[in-house]
Amino acid sequence: MRTQRQPGALLAITLALSALPACGPAASPPPLPAGGAKATPAPPAPQGLPVVETRLESVGLDESALDRSANPCEDFYQFACGGWLAKAEIPGDEPIWMRSFNEIEKRNEAELRRILEEATQAGDRDPVSKKIGAYYGACMDEAAVEAAGVKPIADLLAKARRVRDAKGVGALVTELHGRGIWALFDIAAAQDMKDATRVIAQLDQSGLGLPDRDYYLNEDDKSKALRRTYEEHVARMMRLAGAQEAAAKKAAADVMQIETELAKISKTRVERRDPKGLYNKLDRAALAKASPDFPWDAYFQGLGRPDVKEVNVTSVRFFEGLSRLLKTAKPAAWQNYLAWHVVRSMAPALPRAFVDESFTLRAALTGQQEERPRWKRCVSATDAALGELLAQPFVKTSFPGESKPAAEAMVREISGAFAREVRSLDWMDEGTKQRALAKLGAMANLIGYPDKWRTYDFEVDPKEYAKNELASRAFDVRWHLGKIDKPVDRNEWQMSPPAVNAYYDPQRNHMVFPAGILQPPFYSVKSGVAVNLGGIGMVVGHELTHGFDDEGSQFDAKGNLEDWWSKDVGAAFREKTGCVEAQYSAYEALPGVKLNGKLTLGENIADLGGVKLAFMAYREMRKGAAEQTVASGLTEDQQFFLAHGQAWCGKLRDESLRLMVQVNPHSPPRFRVNGPLANLPEFGEAFKCAPGTPMRPTRQCAVW
Question: Could you say which of 543, 550, 556, 581 is catalytic?
Fold first, then answer.
C-alpha cells in the first residue's frame, strides 16, 4: 500500500530506482545568510592516556578505501573514499553502488535467497516456509509465467476497453485500486494529522508513469527526450499486450495527454514537504462538491468502506482538476490510459518481453545496463508481498543478539546528547525547550523486528505468479483500509526487517531501526566505539533529528500537527534552516545541475544533527577510558569522522544522479559527507584544518 507522506527515512525508494544518495563533484562553500553555528562543545577528548597503536582494519575501517594523497580539509569525501572510488565498478544490474549499503544488501539478499530456496524444496514445511516458498517458487517458474502470457490481466484489459464515460472510469478505477493498481490517484489509511489517535482515509495524487510531474512539464532537452522515450515505450508495451501498431501509437499519445494533464494539477515535491498543505480534511459531501464528476459513493462501496465519513485530501486542487479532466478527455483516451496502467503495474509478473521492455525505460532513466537476475527480482517480490513472514527466518540467522542492546544503548546516549543540546540553546526560550524535551521523552524506538508479526490472510498458488501478485496487493489494500476508524498502532512497522534502512515517523513519534541495517560495517562488536558511533550512531542521530527538522518540528509529542513553538523561536529556527538551504543549493552534482536545497532540507538537517549528536555521544561513551587508540596514524576523533565518510562511499551513473537530484529528498553522498562535516567545528579541530578552508569555512550552519 502506498504511503502518501513518507516518514523521514535514511534512504528513500522511488519508482525508478533505489534512491541511495549519488556521487558528484565537490562545490565551494556558498556565502551563507545569518543563522550560523554556535557550537555546544562535546565532552573533551581523552588527554594524556596511554596510546595503543593499531591498524584501521582492527577498529572496523578500510585503509584501502582511503586516498591519502587528498587533503581532508579540502575534500574529506575524497580522502575517506577516493581509493574505493578509483577501484569500484557499478555492477551492470545496478544503477548505483554504495560501499556499505550494498555490502550489507548483498549479504542480506543472499541469505533471503537461501531461506526461500530451502522453503521451496522442503517437504514437511511449517506454515511460514510453505507460504513464502510457494510465492517465491511461483515467481521463479518462468516457464509457467511465459505460458500464462497476458491471461492474468486479460479481464482487466477487456474492462478498460468497455469504458464509455466518467462513471465507467470510476468503476474501473475502483476495481484497480482494490488490486493495488494506482491509476489517477490513490487511497490509504493515515493518521489524522490533527488527532494522531485516529486513523482516517486519505486521498493523494498519483497516476503518472514517469517518476515526477516535472518530467512532463519541463522544456529542457533532456526532459523532452525522456518524454519521447516514454511515449515510444508505452506504444511498445501496448503492442505486447495485443494492440495493433496504429492503435498502440494512439494509446501512447492518449497516455501522454492524460498524464500531462495530471502533472499540471499535481503538487511539486517541494510543495509536498509542507505538512499543513497536505492536510485538507473533507466530509463526503465536501469531497463530492470538490470533485463532482467522480462517483465517490460507488468508489467507497466498491472498496468495502461505504462507512467512511471523512477523508484527508492532500491536494484539493488536484481532485478539482481531476473532475474537470473526467469531463474533457474522450472515452477512448480513458480506455487507453487505464489499460496502460494495468500493463505497467503488472509487467513484472508477465512474460519476459514485458520485463525487458520495462527495463528499457528504467535504463533510460537511470543508466542501468542490465536487468537484475530473476532470483533477485523474486526475492524482492516475496519480501514486498510477505515481508514479515520472510523476516522471521531471516532474523533468526542474521540478527546478532548483541545488536539490539547496543542500538538501545546508542539511542539512550544520543537522546541524552540531544537533551543537553536543547538545554544549552541560546535561541530557544524555556517554554519551547520544555516542549522539545517532552517530545524527545515521548519518542519510541523500534529495533530489529516487530514484537508481534503481521499475518497474511490470502491464498498463494504455487503455480501462478501473477495471480499471487494480484492477491497480495488486494489483501494489502484491504488490510490497510481496515485500519480506518480504529486506534493507531504505534508499534506497527512500515519497513521490512531485512531492509538496510531506518526511518522516523513524526505522527507516531517513533524511530525504527530494522535488523537489516544493524550489521557490519554500520555496527560490529569488533569495531571501536568511535567507529560504531560514526556508523550506526549517525543513523540513530539522523532519525532522531528528523523529529525536529523543518517538517518533523511541526508535529508535537503526541504526533499532532501543531505549532508548539513561540513566535520568536520559530523565526530563529527558520533563519537557521535557511542557512542549511543556502549551503546545499550551491552544491553542483553535475555540470549545471545543482541540488535543490528546499527539497533536501529535512534530510540535510538530519545529517547535520545526526553526525553532531553521534559525536557528542561517542565522546560521552569514551569518558573514563583507560587508553586511547590510534589506528594507522588516525586519532579516535578522526576515526569517528572517517567511519561516517566511509559509510557513504558511493558511485552513481550520471543518469541516476540527474534523476536523484530531481526527485530525491536526500543529497548525493559527497555532500552527505562534506556538507555536515563542514559545519562541525570538531571536525576542523580533529584534522587541524585552517579557518577558511572548504571543510572549515568561516561561516558554519547549525540547527540543533
Answer: 543
